[in-house]
Amino acid sequence: MKRANDEINSLYESKVFDMNFRGTSNDLSSVKIYTNRNSFQIEKQISFDAENKPISSLEYFAGSVLSSILLAFLEQSKKRRSIVEEIEGVLNLSLENPLSMIGVKGYDEEPFISKMTVTVFIYMDLEDEAFEGFCRVALAHSPIYNTLKRAMKLDVLFKKLI
Amino acid sequence: MSQDQIKVGAVIYDPRVTVIWGIIADFFKEEGMEIDCVFYKDYEGQVDGLMSREIDIAWNSPLAWLDTYLRTDGKCQMGSMRDTDRDRRTLFIVRKDTGITNLDGLRGKTIGFGAIDSPQARLIPINHLRKHGLAYDADYTERRYDIGVGLHGDHVGGELDAIQALKSGTVDAAVTLDLNWEAWKKDGTIDEHQLVCIDTTDLFDHCIFTAHPDFSTERFEEWQKVLHRMDYTNEAHQKMMDMEGLKEWVEGRITGFQQLREANDYLGFFGR
């Protein structure tokens, strides 16, 4: 019997997983995003107030990137008898042209995230080379990382905790 | 009298500063006098905006006040200021090991100043040196640290760079606002055992609300009455006041800008 390969199995569903989201705004101020079984409200794209509690679009975005990378590591760990004993990540991002977001006259350049750095701190019992290999494989399983790395400067650093 | 929103201008170089104006705008709305905040990149743009009536009131630096004053032939209206805007002074700082003890000791030396348009870190101290016999461009060398030009010294970077240059020996003296000197002593930026203040300018005032000559004086007074009702014991107001560096809004005055006017005449800053 022939094994399925790309040529034979060209089913769309096998190659692509589509997702759809709906966003509404009843108050014409905030936005409600619906997932399959849930929803969440977003009031602002970004807040410059350190004491602002509601989660902004930019915070969801950063959380999405960081969680995808950390979860990729944890999923990879489970395939390797849970070799990750502890993990933590830090994400730093730089938003360029923030003043054009708030309409400061004299600034009209498009705001965008120019740089993002994720540092993953991991406690696991692997030698340096094996550690590096594990991290690379894990990272390759983060679709969000794989997407963004094609679009922007996104560095991921691995730090082994001893 | 028009009851349209009063348009208030402010110069913003850091998006976090918009939090201050958000709190002020919310308070005015609660008080039944809505304001529309218009933000500018620099003070020249803001004064342009005031002159073209894009805004009614501008939160002006002292130099922007002078610019407005000159452009309106002295007809602009002065408004409130922060309590901390009154009676400021600039300090002349040297390293203790240089043995310089007074302004005359700066003759032939290099002095570190802030940005070219900083009232406190360039214009006023240069005028002070003139009054004490040290002519600009003749009796000392100016080393300028032009950080945030257009912001009239709002950004502390130029003064900080001048102080760092003093510490490293690049300059023989540096000038800085009294409030910065006190803050740097507290946070350890400077070591009082290494640096010493040898002289200070006379007292001067800093920022001030300025209204267009044609803006209703009655409305401007009402607006200021509301502003003065901001209260440091109110949690939201306290947050705004701490960020903006005041405990209360006080009546404005222009007597505290005399040294700046002299400096402008001396240096021909506005070329008028």
Give an overview of the whole structure.
The complex is a heterodimer of chains A (162) and B (272). Chain A is 30% helix and 28% strand. Chain A has helices at residues 12-15, 57-79, 98-101, 128-139, 143-148, and strands at 22-24, 31-34, 39-42, 84-96, 112-124, 153-160. In chain A, helix 2 crosses helix 4 (128-139). With 272 residues, chain B is an alpha/beta fold. Chain B folds into 2 domains: 6-85 and 205-267, D-Maltodextrin-Binding Protein, domain 2, CATH 3.40.190.10; 90-200, Periplasmic binding protein-like II (D-Maltodextrin-Binding Protein, domain 2). In chain B, strands 2-1-3-11-4 form a 5-stranded mixed β-sheet. The radius of gyration of chain B is 19 Å and the shape is globular. The two termini of chain B are 35 Å apart. The A-B interface holds A 48-51, 98-99, 101-107 and B 12-13, 15-16, 18-19, 22, 38-42, 45, 49, 239.
Name some characteristics of this structure.
heterodimer, A: 162 residues, alpha+beta, GMP Synthetase, Chain A, domain 3, 3-stranded mixed sheet, 5 helices, B: 272 residues, alpha/beta, D-Maltodextrin-Binding Protein, domain 2, 2 domains, 5-stranded mixed sheet, 36% helix
CATH topology of the largest domain in chain B: D-Maltodextrin-Binding Protein, domain 2
Q: Poorly predicted ranges of chain A (pLDDT <50, ≥5 residues)? A: none
Number of helices of chain A: 5
The coarse overall form of chain B would be: globular
Mean pLDDT of chain B: 96
| Overall strand count of chain A | 6
Largest sheet of chain A at a glance?
3 strands, antiparallel
The tally of structural domains of chain A comes to 1
- The total domain count of chain B is 2
**Helix proportion range of chain A:** 25-40%
CATH class of chain A: Alpha Beta
**Rg of Cα set of chain B:** 19 Å
